[in-house]
Amino acid sequence: MRFLKPVQAVIVAAALFCAGAAMAEPAKVRTAGPIQAQPLAAAAATGSVKAGITVDILQRKGFWARVKSGTQTGWLKLSRLSLGSGVSGNEIAALASGRTGSGNVVSASGGRGLDAADFERATPDNAAVAALSRTAASESAAAQFARSGGLKARKLDYIRAPSTKRSSR
Amino acid sequence: MRRFAFAVAACVIAVPAFAQFSLPDLGKTQDGKLDLGGIIGQVKDIAGSQSADEEARSGETIAATVFGAAPAWRKPAAQSYVNLVGRNLARQVERKDLQWRFAILDTPSINAMAFPGGIVVITRGLYELVTSEDELAAVLSHEIAHVNRRHQWKVIQQQKLVALAGSAVTSNDKGRTAEVVADLGTKLIARGLDKSAEFEADRDGVVIAARAGYDSSALIAVMERLKLLKTGADTALLFSTHPSPEDRIASLTEAATAQVEAAAEPSAAAARIRTAR
User: Fold this and answer.
1) What is the predicted ipTM?
2) What angle do CA B241, B82, B91 make, to 5 degrees?
3) Residues of B in contact with A143 (CB under 8 A)
């Protein structure tokens, strides 16, 4: 069995530290209500939380977060939480290092961004638009691309606007 | 203005006259009764196909202005990749038969835009910010939803009527009309849509992505990364034209159905984006 070299061990320890930081992310509860046994609307309540208290996020899954409040743990929908920075400690470290981004991530690049004045000054580039047809993908190529990526299509209805369907959660 | 008022009055008089001549051949049921719904449907079909052409042309004109401000990124592998991801997503919507075209703009600005008719662009800044194909799909799906719902086109059409009425130009003056539409479209990109349209595109977008097999919660991951960004030159346009990432997460999460929540799993293709970096 191979053992980690000292440098590798430090990196692993740092990663574990960051992961630990991620697990302790605090968040404020926006709306009072139950916390649930599973990240499902129909799951049983394991306790309840009041609006305005701070909870610790232990885990994230899709639209839900597993939180700890005192001795209680359970799942809350993200819409019931103010997430602060909302990004885990290891993600912040990765972003700061530029590992996952372009270097423009945490702060502006120093250059001037694209804005309304750019559009007003621009000389229309019709050739660039014409060139789009050359890089466009056909429907059959896109279908093949989906298959080669192992994507499994699902049948799903659109989500109705909240004004026509109020969530009970 | 008098000329415009006269034109309106002439139309009011002319419509019943037109109807008298046309009704015998148009919009009757099999038993000979008048079918007003049928008449409206047929007129809508004719107007719809003309409008689709106009929509596509206008989108190309607006896109030309945007490409004039930021050129396409000279990275063929990434351009091809974005087209494949985007076209597969567009297969999931009602307007799948539009001429869907996707491109990465060579700018560090962080943004994505859709133009009437099916052209969608993402900036290099945002393309490099997303960390998986699921997240890229979430961004593109939001833009596809805008086109599918004709969000921009509806606003342009409403404002076109006002602009043309104000300048007393008739709809037959095609050159002037196209100019007005292009100007309105470019201003719309800078000003942004109503918040309700953005929230709707978020809701539709997660469904479109999930239909294609992607993680329905990937847009939330993108929003959380956007929350880290300081307001600056690279993000000013994005933040001024969209609700805050916090509000978008809250709105989307509140609205998500059990069906959509069940699709919140990374796809098998999540890591494929690395091949096109």
Assistant:
1) 0.80
2) 90
3) 88, 91
> Is A123 in contact with B68 (Cβ distance < 8 A)?
yes
> For B211-232, how does the pLDDT look when each residue is reduced to its tens digit (9 = 90+)?
999 999 999 999 989 988 877 7
Q: Domain coordinates of chain B in residue numbers?
A: 54-149+192-276
Q: Which long-range contacts (CB under 8 A, 24 or more apart) does A120-128 make?
A: A120/B186, A121/B69, A122/B65, A122/B66, A122/B68, A122/B69, A123/B68, A124/B61, A124/B64, A124/B65, A124/B67, A124/B68, A125/B64, A125/B67, A125/B68, A125/B71, A126/B60, A126/B64, A128/B64, A128/B67, A128/B68, A128/B71, A128/B72
Q: How far apart, in whole angstroms, are the C-alpha atoms of residue B159 and residue B180?
A: 9
* Surface of B (87-146) touching A: CB under 8 A: 87-88, 90-92, 96, 99-103, 105, 107-111, 119, 123-125, 128-129, 131, 133
Of A112, A124, A139, the CB nearest to B233: A112
What's the pTM value of the predicted model, to 2 decimals?
0.77
| Most B-contacting residue of A63, A120, A134, A138 (CB-CB within 10 A), to test interface | A63
Please state, in angstroms and rounded to a whole number, the distance separating the CA atoms of residues A92 and B223.
14
d(CA B64, CA B86): 20
Q: Over the stretch A63-98, which tens digit does the pLDDT of each residue have?
A: 999 999 999 999 999 989 887 644 443 443 344 333
| Residue B179 contacts A, CB cutoff 8 Å | no
Q: Which residues of B touch A150 (CB under 8 A)?
A: 267-269
CA angle at A76 for the pair A70 and A78, rounded to the nearest 5°: 120
CA distance B200 to B202: 5
CATH code for A6-97?
2.30.30.40
Residues of B in contact with A111 (CB under 8 A): 108, 233-234
Partner residue opposite A137 with nearest CB, options B84, B92, B217: B84
